[in-house]
Amino acid sequence: MTERIKEILSWYGSDNPGTLTNLARVLNHGRLGGTGKAVILPVDQGFEHGPARSFAMNPPAYDPRYHFQFAIEAGCNAYAAPLGFLEAGARDFAGDIPLILKVNNHDSLMDEKDPDQALTGAVSDALRLGCVGVGFTIYPGSSHRLEMYQQIRAYGEEAKSHGLIVVIWSYPRGSGLSKEGETGIDVCGYAAQIAAQLGAHIIKVKFPSPHIEQDAAKKVYAAEKIPITAGSERIRHVVQCAFNGRRVVIFSGGAATTDEAVLNEIRAIHEGGGFGSIIGRNAFQRKKPDALRLLDTVMKIYSGGAR
Amino acid sequence: MTERIKEILSWYGSDNPGTLTNLARVLNHGRLGGTGKAVILPVDQGFEHGPARSFAMNPPAYDPRYHFQFAIEAGCNAYAAPLGFLEAGARDFAGDIPLILKVNNHDSLMDEKDPDQALTGAVSDALRLGCVGVGFTIYPGSSHRLEMYQQIRAYGEEAKSHGLIVVIWSYPRGSGLSKEGETGIDVCGYAAQIAAQLGAHIIKVKFPSPHIEQDAAKKVYAAEKIPITAGSERIRHVVQCAFNGRRVVIFSGGAATTDEAVLNEIRAIHEGGGFGSIIGRNAFQRKKPDALRLLDTVMKIYSGGAR
Amino acid sequence: MTERIKEILSWYGSDNPGTLTNLARVLNHGRLGGTGKAVILPVDQGFEHGPARSFAMNPPAYDPRYHFQFAIEAGCNAYAAPLGFLEAGARDFAGDIPLILKVNNHDSLMDEKDPDQALTGAVSDALRLGCVGVGFTIYPGSSHRLEMYQQIRAYGEEAKSHGLIVVIWSYPRGSGLSKEGETGIDVCGYAAQIAAQLGAHIIKVKFPSPHIEQDAAKKVYAAEKIPITAGSERIRHVVQCAFNGRRVVIFSGGAATTDEAVLNEIRAIHEGGGFGSIIGRNAFQRKKPDALRLLDTVMKIYSGGAR
Amino acid sequence: MTERIKEILSWYGSDNPGTLTNLARVLNHGRLGGTGKAVILPVDQGFEHGPARSFAMNPPAYDPRYHFQFAIEAGCNAYAAPLGFLEAGARDFAGDIPLILKVNNHDSLMDEKDPDQALTGAVSDALRLGCVGVGFTIYPGSSHRLEMYQQIRAYGEEAKSHGLIVVIWSYPRGSGLSKEGETGIDVCGYAAQIAAQLGAHIIKVKFPSPHIEQDAAKKVYAAEKIPITAGSERIRHVVQCAFNGRRVVIFSGGAATTDEAVLNEIRAIHEGGGFGSIIGRNAFQRKKPDALRLLDTVMKIYSGGAR
Amino acid sequence: MTERIKEILSWYGSDNPGTLTNLARVLNHGRLGGTGKAVILPVDQGFEHGPARSFAMNPPAYDPRYHFQFAIEAGCNAYAAPLGFLEAGARDFAGDIPLILKVNNHDSLMDEKDPDQALTGAVSDALRLGCVGVGFTIYPGSSHRLEMYQQIRAYGEEAKSHGLIVVIWSYPRGSGLSKEGETGIDVCGYAAQIAAQLGAHIIKVKFPSPHIEQDAAKKVYAAEKIPITAGSERIRHVVQCAFNGRRVVIFSGGAATTDEAVLNEIRAIHEGGGFGSIIGRNAFQRKKPDALRLLDTVMKIYSGGAR
Fold this sequence. Notes:
The structure is a homopentamer.
Chain A: H1 3-10, H2 17-28, E1 38-42, H3 45-48, H4 51-55, H5 64-74, E2 78-81, H6 83-87, E3 99-102, E4 104-105, E5 118-119, H7 123-128, E6 133-138, H8 145-161, E7 165-170, H9 185-197, E8 202-206, H10 215-223, H11 231-241, E9 248-252, H12 259-271, E10 276-278, H13 281-284, H14 288-302
Parallel strand pairs in A: 1-2, 1-10, 2-3, 3-6, 6-7, 7-8, 8-9, 9-10
Antiparallel strand pairs in A: 4-5
């Protein structure tokens, strides 16, 4: 156990040894194992956007085994997916990579002003599939948010008592926010705070923009001169918003884009003291060699061996 | 146990031996037993459309025993029906044919923009009636879909822990979709993916049309040149959408029509690598000899002995 | 045990001996015991319409003991009432007549477009009061119907596991139907089918009119030439709609009317193969001697001793 | 045990000895003990109308101990209050007077067309505080009524199984009724019937006015010539509506008014065969000596020693 | 144990020794220990208003350990915070200061006419984190209030049976009230009464203004000449409204303001017989030395050593 991992574990003083063990499994796995940085592969887009929109540009990715294999080869810290995808590979890859069961999901066959997710997995499913924890999406800004907070509270209580970790995707969205506001720096910081207060061990938020959504926040950012011009500054602020850096916060990029755009964000996350990335579409929507090459560079940046 | 059935069972690595046994019972029963193809008789139309509209054209079908007997004589792999119909024959035909309890149902005495179903059976009912599994309808595209996903999640967890299989009827419908969109190729593929992610062992979807419903999907189908002109191509695509063919996907035809129309669809399903059919109204709304003759041809097509 | 009762019990092959025993208790009790016909006294109108509208024309009927006594003297097969009415007499008349606890109820102090009922009794109440079963109203055609189906599903599961029978009052009503449609022949048949599929042992529907409510049904009734002109023909059709006569279907008449009107319906039910009647207001809203005289004639008709 | 109390207990033949014991405790306590009449002090107005509006005219009544003491000194049969008020005195006055935990409550900081109440106490609270039973308000005529009936059903089942009694405040109110209709004679009688059917041991209704609310009821009251001119006639009718007098029905007066107005209602209740009164604001909103004097006269009327 | 603490404990005669022990822990801790006065530090503003708006003016406060440390140094009676903040320090500061788990929370990423809170912690969480009790916000005046009362009822039942105390933040808000009405004297008194009736051990309300919100209350305040001109008079009235002073009522000030404004309110609370304060933003939004200096004066006022 490296000193850095010991330090990170020390932030979670209320968790039982089972949960700390599973958190250590994530932080000690893969190419970034022991560094305190983490790259997680999430594949719930088949549910979220549909299979063709997710996998047709790289057809092997229709196969659930592809993603287990890819996460292993790329040296990711963990692989996160819905029930069906994990059930379809958990035996074949048992023990090969830490798994996170994404326990709520959402489809896009219906437009909603205020999005919500369905509970699609249980803590007992995570246990029987050998997962290290559960993943849960909340939508701050949606009229369904309070119910979602209550759901993750119950999942968190059960997960922690069984030695699992809790990963929260905190994605502001809904009628309380403008489209631009979903990634605004104040909103991203707030999203990280809510996830931390809800008891998350690992928090995923969007890469923040310099936009400030709320008037009451604008005054404070101006008065206190909070630096948010550079991406790394915004990352540093979001990390501060999550218990002053005492929670693992990782960032997601969104839709597939160019290698360089991805890597620029990675560099900003690394410089800003972020704990890593969740890379989904930018991984499985490239041909495998291209994706492995991109993740190789990502890993190098996070381990300090590349710029 | 044939090699093909062993192969299919190998896809379900997270299920307990009880569930695998029941899946094998379905796949090894009837005239298609051991081939990896399946034809299932479903009779929930008395609930869905009313008794006269369902059975008046073939009055013996008012009797619940008729359908057990028919499924046995036709050599189907399984018979699926609501609580009342199964309770009325499960003792008389105990052990004669695998039974699937359809645990949610819907009537048509009220029009709704966004359809929903009532839970009408329990996992405990399936167990006491000797069923191999439970069947559940979801309506992606309806405002009730998230609640339906949550219901099948809970049923699935209980069913699997008791060694039963889960069959999902994934029928997109509701205010999120146009009428034409309900059978659009993108929507059918998406419906198969959702059912698979929800943990279904067997997935039933409608026979897909070449229509593409969602704008975001249209771009992908065009860019990736996904072949969807021939029925068999669309079938192949839907099967791919369900974990690249690693889930049993069968297709339903809908309202009673001519023998030739039915058989053309069967041929397309067979050629496209589909796993079989669910044939309801086209079975019990014909006089018994006619229906048996039709199913005989269907079985021959699926077993490779007819065109 | 008569052959006819043995035959009827044979239709319920999935029930445990406890439930069959209680079904036999109903069918073997009173003047029609052993004939396979049944007349049940239901008194929930105090709740449904208020006490004065129900009992002021025959004031002894305000007393809950009156109805136990009346059902016994008239030779009914069973007496059905809400919690309060049964609690008020179950000890005094313990063992004298089979009791059915009406576990949901509705009042008329508020108009609703889509009616619903409140759960007012539990299976455990039915057991502690010595009842043979529970009675439950569903309103197909109401926006609350799916929830009602789910409630009776849960009650049915619990009742059957404790050896009780399930009686469903299937009364179509609500915004999905016209007023005339509530007793239309297609709707009554559909209502009987739904109750049967929900697992009812005894089904109560309204006496059907020749009206056909649904367009899709009109075509089928015409095409298949289903005879519905005579009352007895309509009764025969409704009985067919309930598993081809393999479920006990009894009919209710509604508001108090003349003896002759009541008896004409009884004759039609008897001729059409119906299993009997539920007679409430036409019993307790007459002076006791008049009511006993009317029921005497009813019993004679059903036992074949009168026309 | 007096003959009258024995007679009253005989009406509750389905209750266990524990519940009968607690019912006897109420009927045998205080100045009216053994007569079959009862006066109960209810103090939930601090919750319902706010503390200043309830207690400022008699400030000692802000203290929860005041009401225990008052009920004891006045010789009431029981004292009913919400959780907080009972918790604040139950130890000091343990065994001094039968207590009824009012388990649902409502405030007036928000106007509603259709009122509802919150569950604020549990059967387990009633047991740990040494209460003889639970009190519950229903609002027939409100759109929330069915849910309220279901709540008291569950409370009643639990209370009775633990040997507690059930007291229902049946107060028609809501969009189904006119303001005048809330105390109309037909509505009061209906309210008493509903409470009785829901299984109440003691029923509280408002003092009825001669108004008839429902058209269908007007015809019956006219046709059957039900006497409702004198207050005592209306009382007699309401008592009849509650199982022909075989349930304990007591009456509430409402807002504080003159002694003479109160006593006139008491005389009518006594003459009409009512079982007593619930006197709240007319007790604690007078100075203690005045209130004790008023209740002394009330007790004398009910015990036959005054007019 | 001082006489004053013994006296306060005597008001809670229905609580078990475990709960009394935890109440004593709060009242005997810190600089005001044993005086019967209490100052509690609450830090849920990161959740309620977002992290930057809460902590940017004093960045060390982003760190959850800061608040534990501050509450200890300032000599507070207890520290209250949501799940995440307590989990992040409960081990490091175990036994150093009584902790209160704030079990419901609300964010401000969405405007609502009728606010509600999400359940974010459980009684079992409070127990595993070594807390003395749970804190819960209710919003009298909101359309969600009845559901909130039901939630705290359930939490209270569980908490008390496990020996924990219940602290209710009673903050009127919502469509039933004007903005000014939220702190009106009648509304504050009513809010204290509701919390007391719901079974709270410690009640937090806003510092009341002389405004009277409800017409029915205005008449009573005028008729009874209730003194509400001076702040200390209004405090005295609110304390009276909470069971005539037999419940611990403390007051919150709201947004950060000048030292003198804060201290003027503290003096009024002390003179009016209030039990103390909850001081959040006026503590952690000042630099630590300034905040400690302010709280030092507050403590002196409450202990009688300053004006």
